Amino acid sequence: MHIYIVPFDDFKKGELNVLKFNLSRIFGLVTTLPKIKIPRNAFNSLRNQYNAYILLESLPVFHDGITLGVTKQDIYVDNLNFVFGLAEMGGKRALISTFRLDPTFYGEPFNKELYYLRILKEALHEIGHVLGLSHCKNKTCVMSFSNSILDVDKKSPFYCENCLKKLYQV
Fold first, then answer.
1. Which of 15, 88, 122, 126 is catalytic?
2. DSSP letter at 83?
3. pLDDT digits (tens, 9 = 90+) for 108-143
4. Model pTM?
């Protein structure tokens, strides 16, 4: 499977390289593409956040793989204060935000390993949705729903046995 990483923002070179390396170990071919512009209509000035649906829909579609958009912006969907990511269930595109994955957002010192692990978990989670997986009741499965950063930290960067079985059935 081919994963295309499409950034919306300027990232330090290492940030996307770590994600690319880890995803390639799981899915095979991963390509990082040049940055694309955030659509102007994605910003909601009342919320001071970006609409995740608009960002997701602005991502290119590649017929031979999955597009993973990555942004540093705070994102939301209607009826939720924020989301870590969004995906087209069974589609071709997924989106993650690193905004609330950074330990400094919570007043903690920057921890590179923790930050990269959180990014990987959310990327795997959203890619899982694209591959047809729904939220898992197993709190340690990467497909477990994350309502807070504590939930992200509790889950592992792996699909549980039940989710793996579903993936292999696809």
1. 126
2. B
3. 999 999 999 999 999 999 999 999 999 999 999 999
4. 0.96
- Distance, in Å, from the CA atom of 79 to the CA atom of 126, rounded to the nearest integer, reads 19
Q: Give the pLDDT confidence of 43-88 residue by residue, as tens digits.
A: 999 999 999 999 999 999 999 999 999 999 999 999 999 999 999 9
Number of domains in the chain: 1
Residue 156 located in a structural domain: no
Supply the range of the domain harboring residue 111: 2-134
108 is catalytic: no
State the Cα–Cα distance between residues 47 and 129, nearest whole angstrom.
Answer: 26
- Assigned token pair, 105: 């957002």
